[in-house]
Amino acid sequence: MANISKINRRAEKEKLQAAKNRREIVAAGLSRREMLRLGLLTGAGLLVPMSGLSVRARSSAGRLFDSGSGSGPSSPPTPPFVQEFTRMTVKQPVTALNPTPTALPNTVAGEGRTITHQAFSQFAPVKFYEVEQRLSNIITHPALPPQPLWGFDGLVPGPLYVERYGKPILVRNRNNLPVNNGGFGKNLVTTHLHNGHTPAESDGNPCDFFRPGQFYDQHYPNVLAGVNSTHKDVGGDIQEAMSTLWYHDHMHDFTSQNVYKGLAGMYLLFNDHDTGDETTGFHLPSFGDGVSDDSNFDVPMVFSDHLYDSETGLLTFDTFNFDGVLGDRFLVNGKVQPVMHVHPRRYRFRWLDAGPSRFYQFFLTDKNNLNQRIKFHQISTDGNLLERPVEVESVRISVAERADVIIDFSKYAGKTLYIENRLEQEDGRGPTGKVLPAGQGNLILKIVVDLPPIADNSVDPATITRFYGLPAKTATPRITRTFNFDRSNGLWTINGRSMDPDCQEVRARISKNSVEHWVVTNSSGGWQHPAHIHFEEFQFLSVNGAPPASTGLVLNGRKDVIRLEHNMHTKVFFRFRDFVGRYPFHCHNVVHEDHAMMLIWEIVEGDGDNITNP
């Protein structure tokens, strides 16, 4: 027994030393390519099995120490539902920017942009913003120490942009991040507005990063897709209007670390139909001032999961876990398991899975009646309104997917409900497929219906028979391309190849104003992949050989993320138009993305290529 105890103590000491050594490598900000060059990774992408370093983690539920036992620390205790849910801070415009924005990159003044704005005069900005990416100490739970996070304006999540179609804006991002990353993260940044219909130079391409001390002007036209196309007479296609977007850092090889560290926020788009005022248009719950409980019934919610160091209580991230990183603490708008108080009326909740690797299936749970099946209405997928509201009892979203839902709390006055994730996921590979019984999942947000009754001028979503409708998808494609998300020799690949580390390779050149069909499949065995394309939305033509459904977990609508579950085979419809330039297609399990499950494609004037397997 004494010998066994001695062996266990020695093994634990080795684990602690390995973790310390690995944290030092992480703090050095080394990319996967740099670690390969230094001999820290094998050709198959595994951490070299050397003394004091250990091997790559095979499971990701908070397992920093991975000597093969699969054991590891968990976060310090954080009692749930002891802090208030926090609405996001609405970003305010500035009257002017100094220096004045220009179409050409202002490199003399310190701009990191190198590509000219292609639609600056056509969609001249009418509002200007300045946002600073910087270190800030954030309280995520009162039982934890202040967290040294990176935020836009020092906020986590970042400020909420509230915009309207037809009102172009310009956002000046200033990189004031520190040299010392505090353990993980890279202070080179690029901000992606996901999934804005944005010219390529303002898209936040992973390869268009800028450095501390520099700024980058991003031009967001806020126009409907099709505004410059040949298939619409004028103004773009209202059927392609978006509503719920988000923005996040997209630094090449470091997206997972930088987003996990706080660089993400949300961006809402209203128009003359989805107005933000429940007395007009579609009569959806009002956004109001975005802050007051008595005016704001349209509430964005960012869901994420974190792991905190068991000794220091500080946020920690294991870059040597290439499957995907899971935390054991669940956050909503940057707070661990908060509590929200609501009026007995209808609310619009905008749900976003910010990752880095967890999938969710959200239910509403009454702990006093676990047999009750609480239904509500889903009105969107990935920021695009459905043809009409769909009554559901759960919503499944993978990383970067969004879903807007309407919940009528008038039926639950005086009660307490919980947003519960019942989707079982044991590691970063993806969900097991098992949906847990009520009360046995993760209770993430407590909702107490105890505010006084208040006027509700929104409409019952069950009575809405149509929003915009969906664009036709019958046009003949110029080409059908196939993209297979897989693992090859231990590396994440698309069509057997990893992302070009120097960002020079363009895998597909697409003719502007053309239609393409893409076949997107998952052949990676036990892993699942949220496959995301920038710039254009798609519509499903088929999922596993069948037409997309009007009910269930894969709804018929417009999307920008394909939730590639086990051995899934999809065929999707794209129409490319309006702007030219380079955009990425990648897995939005951002750990997979950072380990090269990404490619670059380009919209070009004139003829595109004829490569069917880019």
Properties at a glance:
single chain, 7-stranded mixed β-sheet, 614 residues, Immunoglobulin-like, 6-stranded mixed β-sheet, 3 domains, globular
Question: How would you concisely characterize the structure shown here?
Answer:
The chain has helices at 2-27, 32-37, 255-260, 590-594; strands at residues 127-138, 147-152, 161-164, 169-175, 191-194, 215-220, 244-249, 264-270, 298-306, 329-332, 335-336, 339-341, 346-353, 360-365, 376-381, 384-392, 395-397, 402-408, 416-421, 442-448, 479-488, 491-494, 508-511, 514-522, 529-533, 538-543, 558-559, 561-564, 569-576, 581-587, 598-604.
SS class:
mainly beta
C-alpha end-to-end distance: 59 Å
- According to DSSP, the number of beta strands is 31
Say what the CATH topology of the largest domain is: Immunoglobulin-like
Seen as an oligomer or otherwise, the chain set is: single chain
Total number of distinct structural domains: 3
User: Strands of the largest sheet, in order across it?
Assistant: 11-10-9-13-18-15-16
Describe this structure in words.
The protein has 614 residues and is mainly β. The chain has 3 domains: 107-271, Cupredoxins -  blue copper proteins (Immunoglobulin-like); 299-463, Immunoglobulin-like; 479-604, Sandwich (Immunoglobulin-like), CATH 2.60.40. The protein contains 4 helices and 31 strands. It has helices at residues 2-27, 32-37, 255-260, 590-594, and strands spanning 127-138, 147-152, 161-164, 169-175, 191-194, 215-220, 244-249, 264-270, 298-306, 329-332, 335-336, 339-341, 346-353, 360-365, 376-381, 384-392, 395-397, 402-408, 416-421, 442-448, 479-488, 491-494, 508-511, 514-522, 529-533, 538-543, 558-559, 561-564, 569-576, 581-587, 598-604. The strands form 6 sheets. A 7-stranded mixed sheet has the order 11-10-9-13-18-15-16, with no helix packed on it. Strand 1 and strand 2 form a beta hairpin. It is globular and about 60 Å long.
